[in-house]
Amino acid sequence: xxxxxxxxxxxxxxxxxxxxxxxxxxxxxxxxxxxxxxxxxxxxxxxxxxxxxxxxxxxxxxxxxxxxxxxxxxxxxxxxxxxxxxxxxxxxxxxxxxxxxxxxxxxxxx
Length: 110
Fold this sequence. Notes:
mainly beta; seven-stranded antiparallel β-sheet; about 65% strand
């Protein structure tokens, strides 16, 4: 496993949530909270052969590696700001373990 240095400054943006007059939950991006954490954002390459002989598809995804607990709750209520851009979390938060404990979490960005 490549060492993770958490050299990037990453801002976790959390939407405010509430319940409307009908009792339905809502997300309010007009007043989010921002928390700066140390992390690492990097490209991840995936190669697949979709079943056609001689065809190889290479996919590149941007992945954020963050300290445990940096994303709490529903990932759709979070965004990540890194190097002046805002990214949406794409999929579930994945826990990465080392020696039986959570070392960091990984989230795909889009």
